[in-house]
Amino acid sequence: MESLLQAFQVLLMPIPILWITLGVIIGCIVGAIPGLSGSMLLALTLPLTFYMKSGDAVNLLVAMHIGAMSGGLLSATLLRIPGTGAAIVTTFDGYPLAKSGKAGRAIGIGIFSSFIGGFIAWIFLVTLSPLLSKFALKFSAFEIFSIVLLALVMIVSVSQGSILRAVISGILGLLVGIPGMDPVLGTTRLIFGFNKLITGFSIVPVLIGLFGFSQILKDTAKVEIHVEQAPFLFKNMFLKFSEIRKHFVNFVRSSVIGTWIGVLPGVGANIASLVAYSSAKNYSKHPELFGKGSEEGIIASETANNASMNGALIPMLTLGIPGNLATAILLGALTLHGLKPGPLLFSSEPEVVYGIMATAFVGNIIMLIVMLGGSLFTARIITIPKAYLLPILIVFCVAGTYALNGQIFDVWVLIIFGFVGFFFDKANIPLGPFIIGLILSSIAEVNFRVSLMHSEGSLLPFFTRPISATFILVSFIVLGWSIYKELKIQKKSNKGK
Amino acid sequence: MGNKNKLFHVDILLSVFLVAISIIVLLGSMNLKPPTYDPLGAAFFPRLLSIVLLLLSIPIFIQGLRKLLAERNEKKETTMFNRKKENDLPAENRDKERPLLSLLVAVVSCIYVFAFPFIGFRISSIILLVLLGIFIYRRERKGKVVSFSIILISVSIFLSFLIFYIFSNFLNVSF
What we know:
The complex is a heterodimer of chains A (497) and B (175). Chain A is mainly alpha-helical.
């Protein structure tokens, strides 16, 4: 508690507040524009934060993440196009409500729901993280490998499309993390004579290529698609206290669902909002209104997706395992600044950990103010012509990547992974497992090999140590269940034909 | 619509890609030997992953082949005599993906990255912004031509110089 109060004392100064406000504003705008995403923004900003103090860099990135998660609500409501993947479920009821002339109401509900979800999840973040980090300090190489395996299995199981393609994506991500210095022996491998690969593929150009450049290529293919924008009037945006009380159970339930799904390594906000939405519909007195402009539907979706954002910070800070793609990029940012997220960070650099928590709290409040005050302005920006926007983004991708090391090699890595991301999209290969595999490749290999060195080559301790055995058992159950579900669906669709 | 002339499916390309990656990694790890204290060595992980990838490429190839044969065997719904011209199609059918525009953007971007160490960041960025702006505008058709052109050229010059100035003076990047 003392560390958290100290973090707030440091944060509540003009410069940190300025960075957080800037991050939230940029995040809201980018999150609102269809075709751009919070992950893309974080990836593009990452190289620029290299020149900032680590505290300011983290404040900016966390604030951008909060802004982008909330900004997706605007295009989801006004255009029926989610600004971010997490806002897909908001389109179900946000757009119909907006079309009926209540766009201000839909957006206002979404903004307050985002705030409440973020706040409740923050309470979990602050109370659970110290406990989990103490528990994680007991982990040895066996447990760390097992939980990494669980994270990979989780993201494979919940990815869109077939399990087979998700596994392939994860394996490719693990492979991309291999070239360079062997993490145990220190010898070089798979560099094929390119000395620039001695330190491996730099995470920043890979991320910018996959999230930035490939997205630009995809958006370019869709420039003609016309959408009808619902009219936005600044009416009934503010929720009354009686309305918050009326939907209190929905707020709390959706926040808890969002937080716990966010905690699961590799599971994203879109799953959280979908589960919360289904749950709200099941418990609603008027389920027939869902999909036609139900306020309860918007509340469930937006509360859960913002809650999952803080939930995802829990495994990132305590275990060094990203809860979702955005925290995978945040993990990259912390590594770039010489920090290693995990249980040891709590004891070695508590000001960093509690600083992130304090930023999540303050950023949530600033998001509420910015979204309420600036949503009308942002609504104008979301239809900015792509003829201006997309080429500018290419220049930013290239300049940002080049700025990292002054090497043109990094820019070519960006271009190559941009093509890879574009090809993945055409081949229905999900990106999530690739990124998680890339981030966790070194951790997985090191801990597996160190475990076998300790056990003199025996795999038995993975199954006899209780925590490790539990993680591995859960991994098998989750993977087995996902394969079974997929085969069942395939069988049904074959019967239908 | 059937296409008897279709030569490949993206899944077949994917399986070829996976096999190629697996072979490259296996060849690259051939010279890596484990030392005595590490039972697995530097080669274990890449070899394990590439073998699994090679095995997984087989069902992908089979899926691709099945889909390709299914697409070739589908009944043709239009012939060259009754096929509608694109402008006759309803509006929603004209809003479809344009992969060639993506290809154009990709090619221009590669030329930009190749050229900027030689002709400088500012000039190459201005050319890229103007060229791609024109290509995308021709498809998007948002706004009047004259105002679009003025804004495009002004923004291209302003942004290129602004980014150069910020990166050079505040981030100490030498382009």
